[in-house]
Fold these 3 entries.
Entry 1:
Amino acid sequence: MEEDTTRASQESPAAYLHLVDTRSEHQSQQLFPVWEREIFKIGRDPRANTLAVDNDLDFAVSRNHCEVYVVVYEPTINHIYVRDRKSSNGTFVNGQLIGSGPDISPGYLLQSGDPPPRHELTSLQLEECKLFASKYHVSSHCLGQGAEAVVCLANDIQTKKQLVCKLINLDKIQGKNSQEDIRRKFQEADILRQLRHPNILPYVDAISSPHSLYTFTELASGGDLMSFILRHGTVKELDSRIIIRQVRAGKLTLRLWTSGP
């Protein structure tokens, strides 16, 4: 208890879970803090979970059902994910099944009460998105932004799976080398399409127009190297060796594809 009080005085939770027990006609409500460096586990087993669900006479909740965790990309930017832990009845977000047994599901990015960073698509991009609206939906939820591209949260319409869409506005690429720069953007997407490596984010699809290039990849729900370091603070030597080996393997694969004649 003293440790929790000390921690609470030093840092604030990344988010709060609002528990509403529908079995009691929404009368039972509680708030649970979710901390950056801890995984909030939910299930029936009180020995293995942060929140143990008791009085579950219908066994709707598995012994180890789901978990909520935080990925910190920067000190002021964190994403909250939930994933299923091989549950029997599955884990749902807004009525949508995001995972069930026998395998642990990928993390599903939650949108909390705080509005996420937004990137409004241009009127032209909105019209372009209508052309592939039966396959993908590109949201205004901005995951990252650079000088030449913006990264938005997207969804696969058929599978309901969360994806990442890297959107490049080709009209903004100007200058005497603009045609070569645009060619390189398409080359990068094509190289990613051909890559199959466990240490490189998997390619899903690419769609282009004379004005835009949309590249869809899987969502990195486990975070990146920086978020790993922010979570753990320090990295042990053995873990460092594993990380360096993975980075080197991915880099060598990229070099083989990009070296060319």
Note: The radius of gyration is 21 Å.
Entry 2:
Amino acid sequence: MRRLIILFLMLSGTYSFSMDNSLEESRWLYSGVAGLNISQIALDNWTQGGDNALAFTLLGNFGIKYVDSPWTFSNGLKLAFGRTKLGEDNFRTNDNEFYLESILSYSLGWALDPYLSNTVRTVL
């Protein structure tokens, strides 16, 4: 019985040491934030004038970055779209943005980091 326990302990130790960590740390870093803003003004029996209002805005800010020393490549995307309705009027655009930025940089040391950059900015 003692030999069986010793054999079991030796084999279990062998199996526990034979496993290795095969997970690699990714060089890609992802980020993202999305949001929805809703605002309403409702006036009832208001003697000083004014109109009811309804507004909404969709927001997004996303990014991806690749880091492999000495190279760094990053992309950023910012989106915004919003509409407003005042009184009996139709909805009108109040926020409208599309912004895309890409940067490729190479680190030569503490004094010099050359880069290439591309930016696209327009309305939706």
Note: The first helix runs from residue 2 to 18.
Entry 3:
Amino acid sequence: MASTSGNAEARSQVLLTTSTQETKELVLAKDRLLAKGLDLAKDRLLALPQEESEKYTGSRELVLRENVSLDAYLKYRERDPDLSVLIYLDNGTIKAYELPTFPHSRVSATIKVSMGAWNRADLVYGDDVTLILGANSSKEPDSWVRPKYRIRPGPGAPAANNLGAAYPTMIIEVGHSQSLLDLHRKVALYFSPRTTIQIVLLVKIFKPKGNNTITLIVAKYVRTSQTPLIPKQVISFGTATPHQSTINYITNTMGVPQNCFIGFGRRDPVTGNNYPACNMANIGLYLMNIPANELFDGDSTVRPFTQAINQGFNLDLYEIQEAIHLRIANQRLRHIIQEATQLTIEKQELENNISIADN
């Protein structure tokens, strides 16, 4: 009997080992397929800003896999947190939407540094944390802000992750490859009934024009607004006028009232005058206010607010424009150097060929 029992345990162990091995091989096979999809997505996303004009307002997201559970996605992100393409889980579908490019990361970093200079004592800042946004949705925002002492959810209450962390109060998303449509749609995920996120700030970087001017759009969404999925404020703060298709999308599709969409290339609906350019720091029109009540939601330690906190944070959009323009200037300089180098090489080759012919 002992021998029979031992054989049964041995067979059970073999079956368990085989099953575990098959599961690991299946996971590896799926990861390889997803990795191949990520490589293809990277090539496609790299080409998008060059191929599509500013008037394009459709989606640029690429579907990588469907019918994926939240648990499977979270485990995948734990195994491979550093990807060449930014992805997220949208109602069971893994989508690629952006590349972690220099302009993309520089904008979110500029915002965090500016906010940190205003208040580091009461706020914490971070990047790329995986947030649970719904029963089958998850995303890593470009950057996030949270009160240092925001109360953690109680037992059984929805939390930002499986460790029970509190949600950020503010999300920062920057779009370089992704379209304005893609950015706008993500707000519904961040403001889902599960989360306690209060503010979403979107920045869209359009393709630079031939004269090195660029269209830049920022949109602020606030959960406590009567219409949280419509931006409370949209500002054009670049050096190029937004394309008419972009204006139409913001006012007609996003539903932003004319008086809430201001900035360069726009007219004051009351006076009919053009708004001034965003060409220096501290222009009132280009200071986007981040409200204190929503920013410090869930943290009673900072109340009553000091006068400085009560006014909220004024984000100077000129700082963001300058950061992006510096990158454009550097890219242009590198392009000129590359062209000059190529001309020098071609000239040298021509001179060598002439010398050979003379001999």
Note: The first helix runs from residue 2 to 51.
